[in-house]
Protein backbone atom coordinates (compact mmCIF):
# COMPACT_ATOMS: atom_id res chain seq x y z
CA UNK A 1 0.00 0.00 0.00
CA UNK A 2 1.35 3.41 -0.94
CA UNK A 3 1.55 5.98 1.81
CA UNK A 4 0.70 8.85 -0.50
CA UNK A 5 -2.72 9.16 -2.12
CA UNK A 6 -2.55 12.66 -3.66
CA UNK A 7 -6.18 13.21 -2.56
CA UNK A 8 -5.10 16.03 -0.24
CA UNK A 9 -3.07 17.93 -2.79
CA UNK A 10 -5.76 20.62 -3.14
CA UNK A 11 -6.09 21.31 0.60
CA UNK A 12 -8.79 18.86 1.63
CA UNK A 13 -8.78 15.66 3.65
CA UNK A 14 -11.26 12.99 4.66
CA UNK A 15 -12.80 12.64 8.08
CA UNK A 16 -13.76 9.19 9.32
CA UNK A 17 -16.67 7.91 7.18
CA UNK A 18 -15.26 9.76 4.15
CA UNK A 19 -16.62 13.30 4.45
CA UNK A 20 -14.17 15.70 2.73
CA UNK A 21 -13.27 18.90 4.58
CA UNK A 22 -10.69 21.65 4.29
CA UNK A 23 -7.41 20.90 6.02
CA UNK A 24 -8.00 24.00 8.14
CA UNK A 25 -11.33 22.64 9.45
CA UNK A 26 -11.57 22.80 13.26
CA UNK A 27 -11.88 18.99 13.46
CA UNK A 28 -8.68 18.50 11.48
CA UNK A 29 -6.92 21.04 13.68
CA UNK A 30 -8.17 19.31 16.85
CA UNK A 31 -7.24 15.75 15.89
CA UNK A 32 -3.96 16.94 14.37
CA UNK A 33 -3.10 18.64 17.64
CA UNK A 34 -3.90 15.42 19.53
CA UNK A 35 -1.52 13.63 17.17
CA UNK A 36 1.13 16.24 17.93
CA UNK A 37 0.69 15.73 21.69
CA UNK A 38 0.78 11.97 21.19
CA UNK A 39 4.05 12.20 19.26
CA UNK A 40 5.62 14.34 21.97
CA UNK A 41 4.53 11.83 24.63
CA UNK A 42 6.18 9.10 22.56
CA UNK A 43 9.33 11.20 22.36
CA UNK A 44 9.31 11.62 26.13
CA UNK A 45 8.89 7.88 26.62
CA UNK A 46 11.81 7.21 24.27
CA UNK A 47 14.03 9.29 26.56
CA UNK A 48 13.19 7.30 29.70
CA UNK A 49 15.70 4.79 31.06
CA UNK A 50 14.81 1.18 30.32
CA UNK A 51 14.63 -0.22 33.85
CA UNK A 52 12.55 -0.35 37.02
CA UNK A 53 10.16 2.53 37.62
CA UNK A 54 10.62 3.80 34.06
CA UNK A 55 9.31 0.56 32.51
CA UNK A 56 6.03 0.83 34.42
CA UNK A 57 5.81 4.58 33.74
CA UNK A 58 6.35 3.90 30.03
CA UNK A 59 3.52 1.35 30.07
CA UNK A 60 1.18 3.91 31.67
CA UNK A 61 2.20 6.58 29.16
CA UNK A 62 1.71 4.20 26.23
CA UNK A 63 -1.78 3.37 27.52
CA UNK A 64 -2.47 7.11 27.58
CA UNK A 65 -1.14 7.39 24.01
CA UNK A 66 -3.57 4.67 22.89
CA UNK A 67 -6.54 6.48 24.43
CA UNK A 68 -5.35 9.79 22.96
CA UNK A 69 -5.22 8.15 19.52
CA UNK A 70 -8.88 7.18 19.98
CA UNK A 71 -9.74 10.69 21.18
CA UNK A 72 -8.33 11.90 17.87
CA UNK A 73 -10.57 9.43 16.06
CA UNK A 74 -13.61 10.81 17.89
CA UNK A 75 -12.58 14.33 16.87
CA UNK A 76 -12.18 13.15 13.26
CA UNK A 77 -15.73 11.79 13.19
CA UNK A 78 -18.38 14.04 11.62
CA UNK A 79 -21.38 15.11 13.70
CA UNK A 80 -24.12 12.49 13.70
CA UNK A 81 -21.71 9.56 13.22
CA UNK A 82 -20.10 7.38 15.87
CA UNK A 83 -16.83 5.49 16.04
CA UNK A 84 -16.81 1.97 17.45
CA UNK A 85 -14.45 2.82 20.29
CA UNK A 86 -15.86 5.46 22.65
CA UNK A 87 -14.09 7.37 25.37
CA UNK A 88 -15.33 6.35 28.83
CA UNK A 89 -15.36 7.89 32.29
CA UNK A 90 -12.95 5.08 33.24
CA UNK A 91 -10.33 6.57 30.89
CA UNK A 92 -10.52 9.86 32.77
CA UNK A 93 -10.45 8.05 36.14
CA UNK A 94 -7.27 6.24 35.04
CA UNK A 95 -5.58 9.61 34.52
CA UNK A 96 -6.81 10.87 37.89
CA UNK A 97 -5.72 7.72 39.74
CA UNK A 98 -2.28 7.87 38.14
CA UNK A 99 -1.97 11.56 39.00
CA UNK A 100 -2.83 10.77 42.62
CA UNK A 101 -0.39 7.84 42.74
CA UNK A 102 2.54 9.68 41.12
CA UNK A 103 1.93 12.82 43.15
CA UNK A 104 2.36 10.94 46.47
CA UNK A 105 6.16 10.99 46.24
CA UNK A 106 6.42 14.59 45.05
CA UNK A 107 7.19 17.58 47.20
CA UNK A 108 4.26 19.96 47.45
CA UNK A 109 4.60 22.97 45.17
CA UNK A 110 5.43 26.17 47.05
CA UNK A 111 6.25 28.19 43.95
CA UNK A 112 5.76 27.95 40.23
CA UNK A 113 8.06 25.58 38.39
CA UNK A 114 9.39 26.18 34.91
CA UNK A 115 9.16 23.50 32.24
CA UNK A 116 12.44 21.61 32.23
CA UNK A 117 14.64 19.26 34.16
CA UNK A 118 15.37 16.01 32.38
CA UNK A 119 14.91 15.69 28.63
CA UNK A 120 12.01 13.30 29.16
CA UNK A 121 10.26 15.64 31.61
CA UNK A 122 10.78 18.53 29.21
CA UNK A 123 9.05 16.49 26.48
CA UNK A 124 6.09 15.84 28.81
CA UNK A 125 5.87 19.55 29.62
CA UNK A 126 5.78 20.25 25.88
CA UNK A 127 3.12 17.56 25.39
CA UNK A 128 1.13 19.23 28.18
CA UNK A 129 1.03 22.54 26.34
CA UNK A 130 0.05 20.79 23.11
CA UNK A 131 -2.77 18.96 24.95
CA UNK A 132 -4.01 22.34 26.20
CA UNK A 133 -4.08 23.59 22.61
CA UNK A 134 -5.99 20.47 21.54
CA UNK A 135 -8.52 21.19 24.29
CA UNK A 136 -8.90 24.84 23.23
CA UNK A 137 -9.47 23.72 19.64
CA UNK A 138 -11.88 20.91 20.53
CA UNK A 139 -14.08 23.36 22.45
CA UNK A 140 -14.94 24.91 19.07
CA UNK A 141 -16.39 21.69 17.65
CA UNK A 142 -20.16 21.66 17.71
CA UNK A 143 -21.52 18.52 19.36
CA UNK A 144 -18.13 17.28 20.58
CA UNK A 145 -18.35 14.46 23.12
CA UNK A 146 -18.06 16.22 26.53
CA UNK A 147 -15.83 13.38 27.72
CA UNK A 148 -13.30 14.40 25.07
CA UNK A 149 -13.07 17.86 26.62
CA UNK A 150 -12.76 16.37 30.12
CA UNK A 151 -10.10 13.93 28.95
CA UNK A 152 -8.00 16.60 27.27
CA UNK A 153 -8.28 18.82 30.34
CA UNK A 154 -7.21 16.01 32.67
CA UNK A 155 -4.49 14.92 30.22
CA UNK A 156 -2.66 18.21 30.61
CA UNK A 157 -2.80 17.81 34.41
CA UNK A 158 -1.51 14.25 34.04
CA UNK A 159 1.37 15.36 31.82
CA UNK A 160 2.36 18.06 34.32
CA UNK A 161 2.56 15.43 37.06
CA UNK A 162 4.30 12.99 34.69
CA UNK A 163 7.03 15.59 34.11
CA UNK A 164 7.40 16.20 37.84
CA UNK A 165 7.38 12.45 38.56
CA UNK A 166 10.06 11.75 35.97
CA UNK A 167 12.26 14.56 37.30
CA UNK A 168 11.90 13.19 40.83
CA UNK A 169 12.66 9.61 39.79
CA UNK A 170 15.67 10.71 37.72
CA UNK A 171 16.91 13.03 40.53
CA UNK A 172 16.62 16.17 38.40
CA UNK A 173 15.93 19.41 40.21
CA UNK A 174 12.86 21.19 38.93
CA UNK A 175 13.61 24.67 37.64
CA UNK A 176 11.64 27.26 39.61
CA UNK A 177 10.32 30.68 38.78
CA UNK A 178 12.44 33.38 40.36
CA UNK A 179 10.73 36.60 41.37
CA UNK A 180 13.83 38.59 40.49
CA UNK A 181 14.11 38.35 36.74
CA UNK A 182 16.73 41.02 36.19
From TrEMBL:
Record bears the keyword Chloroplast: no
Keywords: ATP-binding, Cobalamin biosynthesis, Nucleotide-binding, Transferase
Domain Cobalamin adenosyltransferase-like: 3-166
Organism superkingdom: Bacteria
Pathway where this protein functions: Cofactor biosynthesis; adenosylcobalamin biosynthesis; adenosylcobalamin from cob(II)yrinate a,c-diamide: step 2/7
Nucleus as UniProt keyword: no
Gene Ontology MF term list: corrinoid adenosyltransferase activity
Pfam families membership: Cob_adeno_trans
Enzyme superclass (EC): transferase
E.C. numbers: 2.5.1.17
Catalytic activity: 2 cob(II)alamin + reduced [electron-transfer flavoprotein] + 2 ATP = 2 adenosylcob(III)alamin + 2 triphosphate + oxidized [electron-transfer flavoprotein] + 3 H(+); 2 cob(II)yrinate a,c diamide + reduced [electron-transfer flavoprotein] + 2 ATP = 2 adenosylcob(III)yrinate a,c-diamide + 2 triphosphate + oxidized [electron-transfer flavoprotein] + 3 H(+)
Family: Belongs to the Cob(I)alamin adenosyltransferase family.
NCBIfam families per UniProt: PduO_Nterm (TIGR00636)
Protein name as annotated: Corrinoid adenosyltransferase
Amino acid sequence: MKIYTKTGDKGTTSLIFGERVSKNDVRVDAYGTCDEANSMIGFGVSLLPEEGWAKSAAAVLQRVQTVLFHVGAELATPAGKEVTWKLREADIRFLEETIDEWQLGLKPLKQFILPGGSQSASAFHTARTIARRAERTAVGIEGVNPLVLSYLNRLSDFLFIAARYVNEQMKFKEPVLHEDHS
